[in-house]
Amino acid sequence: MKRPVSFHNHPVPTFTPYDVAKAALEHCGDQWGAEPGPWATTGHLRAWDGTPFTIGANPTGELFVRNDQLGDALPLPVKPTDDLDTVARAVAEIVGHLY
Questions:
Q1: For the whole model, what pTM was predicted?
Q2: 72: helix, coil or strand?
């Protein structure tokens, strides 16, 4: 019997989705901005043309990036044990696919 996926079994990263958004700026370009969501539980990026993106975690602990203008979202191919720069690079790459 396969056990259901649970966030209780995931390690806890030392950074928040807002930290990821700030770190992603280095890989997105100098005309991008980052803002925190409530309690830094989400991070928000704003592209050079004003397009808003959200970085968050779903209930199973998987991180996602969503283009808030279109409503499209993609999961980040990262693990909770990945470092901040690895996650930030993944965000920058996923954002390119969500335009």
A1: 0.89
A2: coil
